[in-house]
Design brief:
Layout (H helix, E strand, L loop, with lengths): L26 E13 L2 E10 L3 E7 L9 E7 L5 E6 L3 E6 L4 E6 L2 E2 L2 E2 L6 E7 L10 H6 L14 E4 L7 E6 L5 E6 L6 E9 L10 E8 L3 E6 H9 L13 H8 L2 E2 L9 E2 L3 H6 L12 E6 L4
Antiparallel strand pairs: 1-2, 2-3, 3-4, 5-6, 6-7, 7-10, 8-9, 11-12, 12-13, 14-15, 15-16, 16-19, 17-18
């Protein structure tokens, strides 16, 4: 937002308070959006943050108000648990709380690059991104299995990646704005997906090809698989049906995933995978003809 001030004698960073929550609530999530339109005096900066009490606030700072600090624009009190993720983009505001990854989204209207108050943010969707993971997973697991959202801030097709259980061979690709399922990614060799990441690659400027979106998945056997999500998004926009339910896995699909897990009353909150021999034989014979992407590339990484 401004140049970091450094102390002259030792070049140490001087930290100044930018904004203080009016309710004295701890800030648990933060998202910054800088308007692509610039003026002579600078950019318009908007920040959305979530608190430990489940509120989501938007604060703004315009070039004309530099020196006075960001101003509170709007507050949303929709969650009952701490907010773990918030994302502010050009047309949407998304927040996720710790209660089974409950997602709330709003549609934003802008006038000359600024969020409009008439009409203000409109509630768009409410859904849950169910993920049965450890209560306090390792930092490496969090970094490699973050659900998103993925995509450019000005992109209307930002996506979320849902991984129901830690040890599974499938993930669900869902639209961030509505929660609808775009496609289901299943490992082509039946190995567990241990990490994933979504990346947008720019198209060739000489050929005029548009950018493409890829999903990279790492697997328990050391392999790396690359999936073309642009094709899946195009098919979804054409109205092709994916899965049994439009908003994430259905009850039957959840039972199918949990059928490979041993749910017990142990102290561990994460279900451990212990499929029966009959299920193990049928693992690679699932009916994946509906709602499945085919891998674009498949790499085997050796230890040598």
């Amino acid at each position: 937002m401004q140049k970091f001030p450094l102390r002259m004698k030792d070049n140490d960073l001087l930290i100044s308070e930018l904004f203080h929550d009016v309710n004295q609530h701890a800030i648990t999530a933060l998202s910054v959006y800088v308007s692509p339109t610039t003026s002579i005096s600078g950019n318009k900066v908007e920040l959305a943050y979530g608190t430990e009490h489940g509120t989501v606030n938007i604060i703004i700072q315009h070039p004309e108000t530099v020196g006075r600090g960001p101003q509170l624009f709007q507050t949303f009190s929709v969650h009952r648990c701490p907010v773990k993720c918030v994302h502010l983009s050009d047309k949407h505001l998304l927040s996720v709380c710790t209660e089974y990854n409950h997602v709330r989204t709003w549609s934003l209207t802008r006038f000359r690059g600024m969020i409009s108050t008439q009409p203000g943010p409109i509630p768009k969707s409410s859904f849950k991104l169910l993920s049965l993971e450890d209560e306090d997973p390792l930092n490496s697991y969090r970094a490699g299995n973050h659900f998103g959202p993925y995509g450019d801030a000005n992109d209307e097709q930002q996506i979320l990646v849902q991984k129901v259980v830690p040890e599974t061979d499938s993930v669900y690709i869902r639209l961030a704005a509505t929660g609808h399922t775009v496609c289901v990614i299943r490992s082509c060799d039946g190995s567990d997906i241990t990490s994933f990441f979504v990346h947008d690659c720019e198209g060739s400027s000489r050929l005029g090809s548009p950018p493409r979106r890829y999903l990279f998945t790492g697997h328990s056997n050391g392999s790396l698989q690359v999936w073309d999500l642009t094709t899946a998004l195009d098919l979804y926009c054409k109205g092709e049906k994916v899965g049994e339910a439009p908003g994430g896995p259905s009850a039957n699909e959840l039972l199918s995933v949990l059928g490979f897990c041993d749910l017990s009353n142990s102290r561990h909150t994460t279900p451990s995978v212990s499929p029966s021999p009959s299920l193990l034989r049928n693992m690679l014979q699932r009916n994946t003809s509906q709602g499945r992407c085919n891998p674009t590339y498949h790499f085997n990484v050796s230890n040598s």
